[in-house]
Design brief:
The protein contains nine helices and twelve strands. It is an alpha/beta fold. The strands form three sheets. Strands 2-1-3-4-5 form a five-stranded parallel sheet, sandwiched between helices. The radius of gyration is 20 Å and the shape is elongated.
């Protein structure tokens, strides 16, 4: 987690609290430090003060989204006016919390945004998927007394689809989430081949899939 806050006392208090709650925390005191931190490391969530010296939180958020950095961002600000909240969200923030706030409320918001963006938090490691019982820890799926193994990558794909039912997932998004990389220089055929192998295990008729369907020109969608 990255905490971007220019007020030292607030920054330290947030670091101490979230580290106590089990998070690995890095901190930045201004927009330049924050930009360098995100260039050097990938974070699970960013707590971003709106009013920062050198580069504002709103500018940083908009810049990261233009760079296709999809890390969840929670804006922290003393500005409580509706237009300020709208501006922050329109720049790409996932949530917005107004100072002063309780640390427990902040923790709840952090966990909520992580559940929305982290498949393991959203669905857990044992869940139902298209009529199959899935155990991603054991790398196994079963249905009607019949079980079979899956690869760790297939488990990650199932988990991500399960966390996003009824939503079109592009090949690029799937690759970024499952392979933990972007598709620069990578053939889209990579994801297609892995989807085909997964369908062979979970679909009654892989040639006419009913669980993971193709949305032409857009990607794939899990039909719950």
């Amino acid at each position: 987690m990255l905490i971007v806050e220019d007020e030292e006392k607030i920054r330290q208090a947030l670091c101490d609290f979230l580290e106590f709650k089990g998070f690995a925390v890095a901190a930045a005191a201004d927009g330049i430090e924050a930009r360098a931190a995100v260039e050097a490391e990938r974070f699970d969530v960013i707590l971003l003060d709106l009013m920062l010296p050198k580069v504002s939180g709103e500018q940083l958020c908009a810049m990261w989204r233009k760079q296709d950095i999809q890390t969840p961002i929670i804006m922290l600000t003393a500005k409580g006016r509706e237009k300020d909240k709208v501006a922050g969200l329109n720049s790409g923030a996932d949530d917005y919390i107004t100072k002063p706030f309780s640390l427990e409320e902040l923790l709840a918001r952090v966990n909520a945004v992580l559940r929305r963006t982290d498949p393991a938090r959203a669905v857990g490691r044992a869940f139902s998927f298209g009529g199959w019982d899935v155990d991603t820890a054991a790398l196994r799926i079963s249905r009607d007394g019949r079980g079979q193994t899956i690869t760790s990558r297939e488990a990650s794909m199932i988990q991500y689809f399960a966390a996003n039912p009824g939503r079109v997932v592009s090949r690029e998004e799937l690759y970024r989430q499952v392979w933990d990389d972007d598709m620069t220089g990578v053939e889209t055929r990579t994801t297609d081949m892995h989807i085909a192998k997964l369908r062979g295990k979970i679909e009654t008729d892989p040639a006419s899939p009913q669980i993971i369907v193709t949305v032409r020109g857009a990607g794939y969608m899990y039909v719950d």
